[in-house]
Amino acid sequence: MPVAIEFRKAVLGAGLALAAVACQSNSPSTETPAAGEAAAGSTTLSAGTWRGVLSAQGQEIPFLFDVNTDGGKPTVTLRNGEERLKLDEISSAGDSTTIRLGVFDAALVVQTDGADKLKGTWVKYDGKEPYRVPFAATKGGAETTLFAGSTQNKSVFGDLKKGATFRTVFKGADGDTTPAVGIITQDSVNPTRLTGTFLTSTGDYRYLAGNLVTLADGQHIMLSTFDGSHGFLFDGKLDKPENINNITGHFYSGKSGHETWTAVLDPNAKLPDANALTGMKPGQKKLNFKFPSIYEGGSISPSDPKYKGKVVVLQVLGSWCPNCMDETNFLAPWYEKNKQRGVEIIGLGYERTTDQKVASQKLLKMKQRMNIGYDLAVAGQASSAEASKSLPQLQKVLAFPTTIFLDKKGEVRKIHTGYSGPGTGKYYEQEVAEFNKTIDQLLAE
After folding, report:
1. CA 275 to each of CA 185, 258, 418: distance values in angstroms, whole numbers, following the listed order
2. Within 13 Å of residue 195, how many CA atoms lie on the same side as its CB?
3. pLDDT per residue rounded down to tens, the chain (445 residues)
4. CA-to-CA distance for 297 and 58, rounded, in angstroms?
5. Distance separating alpha carbons of residues 17 and 11, to the nearest angstrom
6. Locate the Thioredoxin domain: which residues (predicted)?
7. How far apart are CA 424 and CA 437, in angstroms?
8. Cα–Cα distance between 157 and 427 in angstroms, integer?
9. What is the DSSP letter of 146?
């Protein structure tokens, strides 16, 4: 999944996929910011809409969030375009408050910094090295704007409902390029507002939101997101004012990831077939594995009696992976509605730790928070190389998630790399339709 530049390079080296560098994790429930990261004082999370800012690489990565204090206990809801991510694990120690970021092993650690202001740190506990990014927030009104300088008052992106499609290329400092499809939509009520995403062969950048901004050097498309695991900023300059035919820009990912990108308006832009990026090794038809269950003492194998004679879907995933969360949000309720048809799902979890117990705890938390009814196994560490090694009958694992379809004989019939989530609009609808078509065909055999 394309969730960070450094992850993409870790998986494919020269190209397309993303995964995490595996590492150990021991996650405290709270953390006190280092000196200078937050001002002293009792933390106040007052109800309303806030504009948060992550400061990294000399850039500001803004995002909006809502605080609700009904019932006396605050909740925080991250807002990324149409997405709403509710955070309810909030605790205080001394003069700091820790806001756990959903299923991810990360948190915002904050303190009050004056009236209606917060200051603190975005902390990722499962990083190979300490990962801390300065954070600040200011309370605003319902119409809080992500990016200042938003002045556009007319349509630039054509059909406001369908948006514009771009043939896009990301380029790293080493010269490696990644093809993508960009989708950007302009709000029909407030033309300064934009939403969109970028799709790659290994997944999408999920829900992006921002504004069309006029700066000293011209008009810019500014899009950002913060889902708890990743903070992204896309800054694209229009070649000519009010002309979106050609865009050049920068992509900043969290603490250190940076790429340049170009986009050309192209309604026919498309990616390689996600079902043809990998396959089985010559002569191989089945996957032979036996992984530990997330429940102590148990194990999971496709040859278990539970799966005999059934269509089985294998979901290669990680609890750290936002695209995997998108797929799980589809698969979990789908499974409850369809399991009686003779279909099972096995989640193969690859985590950022070598400690099986810690990995099990992370996946169990994911299972509980996302109401997952199907089985989850601890399959290995979060890297393409480790995933490929653990499933040696496959040519390779390119991305998290990867979805593998087994027929009633247990033979691999289809391997789908990546996932186009709900932030991609019509591409998500196509993803769901294709999934259902594949299952129907295999069940009918």
Report:
1. 28, 29, 9
2. 17
3. 454 444 444 333 322 233 322 222 233 333 444 433 333 345 678 999 999 999 999 999 999 999 998 877 899 999 999 999 999 999 998 889 999 999 999 999 999 999 999 999 999 998 778 899 999 999 997 678 899 876 666 677 766 556 899 999 999 999 999 999 999 998 888 888 899 999 999 899 999 999 989 888 999 999 999 999 999 999 999 999 888 999 999 999 999 999 999 999 999 999 999 999 999 999 999 999 999 999 999 999 999 999 999 999 999 999 999 999 999 999 999 999 999 999 999 999 999 999 999 999 999 999 999 999 999 999 999 999 999 999 999 999 999 999 999 999 999 999 999 999 999 999 999 999 999 999 999 999 9
4. 49
5. 6
6. 280-444
7. 20
8. 19
9. S
What's the one-letter identity of residue 146? L
> Which residue has 């806001």 as its token pair?
99
Q: Tokens in use for 333? A: 């309720």
Closest Cα partner for 150 from 73, 69, 51? 51
Structural domains of the chain sorted by starting position, each given as residue range(s) with its CATH number in brackets: 164-265 (2.40.128.120), 291-444 (3.40.30.10)
Joined together, the tokens standing for residue 389 give: 């090694």
Tokens of 272: 């390689």
Spatial contact of 366 and 328, defined as CB atoms under 8 Å apart: yes
Query: What CA dihedral angle connects 127, 133, 138 and 140, to 10 degrees?
Result: -60
Alpha-helical runs (H) found in 196-262: none
E strand residue ranges, 150-302 = 164-171, 177-186, 193-200, 203-204, 208-215, 218-226, 231-240, 243-253, 257-265, 291-292, 299-300
The separation between the first and the last C-alpha atoms of the chain, rounded to the nearest angstrom, is 32
pTM of the model: 0.88
